[in-house]
Amino acid sequence: MKFDTGQSIEKIATRFGYSEALIRLLDQNKDILVLDADLAKSTTTSLVQDRYPDHFVDVGIAEQNLVGIAAGISLNGTTPFISTYAAFLAGRAFDQIRTTVCYSNLNVKFAGMHTGITVGEDGPTHQMLEDIALMRVLPNMTILNPCDYNEAVKATLAADNLKGPVYIRFVRESTEVFTKKNDRFVVGEANELLKGKDLTFISSGPILYKALQAAEELINEGYSIRVLNFHTIKPLDNDAIIKAAMETKGILVIDEHQIYGGLGTAVSEVIAMNNLDVLYKLIAVEDRFLTSGKPEELLNMTGFTKENIKRIAKEMITQKKSGT
Amino acid sequence: MKILANNIRKDIVNMIFEAGSGHLGGSLSLVEFLTALYFEKLKHDPDNPDWQERDRVILSKGHAAPVLYSVLARAGYFPVKHLLSLRKLNSDLEGHPNIKTPGIEVGTGSLGQGLSIGCGLALSFKKKMMSNITYVIMGDGELQEGQNWEAAMFAGNNNLNNLVAFVDWNDLQIDGKVSEVNGIEPLEAKWKAFNWNTRVIDGHNIDEIIKTLNSGADSVKPLVIIGKTIKGKGISFMEDKAEWHGKPLNKELYIKAMEQLEIEI
Fold first, then answer.
1. Which CATH superfamily, name and number, covers B2-264?
2. Hey, what CATH topology would domain A191-323 get?
3. List of chain A residues whose C-beta atoms are within 8 Å of the C-beta of residue B116
4. Is residue A249 predicted with pLDDT exceeding 90?
């Protein structure tokens, strides 16, 4: 597979994929209700409201109530899709998600918006870097982390098809649309974007694009890099991790999340539980709150750059060779 | 109906004695309201718990599960003798309500969440032009949870007149009197301020409860029934004692409690 990682590539924020998918579901007369907590413009659900006002409810700034109302709506057979900033959804309403929704395995879909570092200037209060950790420990929960606009549409449509709670992670910034509309998207199945045998990159969400760019440059330098798109964080594609560990002997996870509890941790659990003999490293936020700043500045500060990914990858490949 | 209520009290005492743990006080204070609701007002079918046209009951104060289980058993959702499996490994009658039990709509137990669920149901019934009524049973101490007031505001603003809340106002919570721990008064004025219809009644008077339930649907507003109750009602040594929130019974007190309930009839 070859990806266009050039300058001309189209950029759209993944959050627009959410409302696009919801409009498509309503166009098909699906029994869904879209709810927001005073952030409809930011989350893009105002686009749904404009088109289908009867299928939209704004509960105001009350995230705990938002989750409870959604639970009630699901109990009468309608599928609620609820959105607000991830910090206030996965964070503030955690107990409501755990005890009211997940315990009863209710059919509620959560859209965690403005996740990750790239919220930038709003600062640490809004830079949600703990949501995967919080959602991952909940029984019955499915977690999807689409890497671009096309995948965001697919993830939202897939959430509608699943029974039970689903958490989908979105970002504010416009990011490269590098997957194709007809690319395969199966919940729980990682996509192999590049084949390789020296090292495996595992990533998800828009940060995956940087991993892909780094991999393509490494390939041009003569290395063989496998790139796996883990759009589903739960249930995790354990087989893809085991296969990568056995075939490439090295896994580098690039995860726009805190180091504890995210995709990086999930991968390391699979390595440990299966006694896999593999070199493992993780690029993530090092257990700290960041600061306000431009998205690119913050990504540079935390090591989410093509150059840093390449540097660590080369170190790992060297270490692997010297170790054998 | 009084005999039924007394039998339900005996069930509660039997269940919690057999289990060795459980919430007596807050179960006993709800006996009359749930008895009146299930046996006089509620549209439901124990033979078909998923019946589309059924009214919905959400026990927001989930720790009062024993009274609800007893009422469900006496209504025919499952055999009364099954009640003795309360809190036992792999029984559906867990310490707090869950969806494995026939007649339970949703799991509850983390306080302050039921009214939001009720709002969602009531809103959905309106959107789908269904005439079902949603009842949410709340504790008074529970009203210290802020989420209730998010939900109260939403229900008032959205004219959810198909939503009825009941507040079990026994003025006790685990750490003492509600009015002393973190008071909720003026209680009726609070609900009025959130655009609700209010009724304050004797929560142990079955006739008054039925009359109030039947007078509900005459307005665009949601209705809250504030029932003045006694925690531990019906068993003299438990009445109005905070310590009986979650304390189990020893054999001697169990016999004493059952004797008192026998005399009642």
1. Thiamin diphosphate (ThDP)-binding fold, Pyr/PP domains (3.40.50.970)
2. Rossmann fold (3.40.50)
3. 64-65, 67-69, 71-72, 96, 100
4. yes
